[in-house]
Design goal:
The chain is an alpha+beta fold and 165 residues long. It has helices spanning 18-30, 32-37, 47-59, 68-71, 74-79, 88-100, 102-115, and strands spanning 123-131, 154-162. Helix content is 42%, strand content 11%.
Length: 165
């Protein structure tokens, strides 16, 4: 597919509507994409639409960026509001922008959670560990093992979650 204007295909196509419906619902009822990713004035690319495409990809097939244009029919791009299929380079640029603006986007995300009372002040913490079969891990270290594998390198980690009721 070229990066030309989108033209409706003349064949029957099938694609997941659930991801599109969820993205549409989240935007219509909560403006989640507009509030977090909107009004980012850097380049002229359609940053917010590409983010929605990446979310759709994650909700459906989770293919690599290189395969997005080959996996989804033109109708998906139309339903997401694209006038042109974004190039692979544009998608990678959007990801780079997320990295560059991560502190701004994280702050917007935190404000969004607070606005809709989605943050909870009680955290549930789970300490865990996992051991490695190999010996080349830079993260692993020998020590006490809950798995009773003191002979193996392990990594310890903490998962923190909050309860939403």
């Amino acid at each position: 597919m070229k990066n030309d204007a989108l033209i409706m295909s003349q064949k029957n196509v099938t694609y997941s509507l659930g991801g599109l419906a969820l993205i549409d619902f989240a935007e219509k009822h909560y403006s989640v994409f507009s509030e977090i990713f909107g009004n980012i004035q850097e380049e002229s690319m359609d940053f917010q639409k590409i983010i929605e495409l990446l979310i759709y990809n994650r909700l459906t097939h989770s293919v690599s960026i290189h395969q997005i244009k080959n996996t989804y029919p033109i109708e998906v791009f139309q339903d997401l509001g694209f006038k042109h299929i974004p190039s692979e380079r544009s998608i990678y640029r959007a990801l780079e922008k997320v990295g560059r603006l991560s502190s701004v986007l994280l702050e917007r995300y935190q404000l969004f959670l607070k606005k809709y009372n989605l943050a909870y002040n009680k955290k549930f913490i789970d300490f865990s560990s996992s051991y490695f079969e190999g010996t080349k891990s830079e993260l692993g270290a020998y020590g006490y093992s809950k798995d009773k594998r003191a002979d193996k390198m392990q990594v310890k980690f903490v998962i923190s979650d909050d309860l939403m009721t």
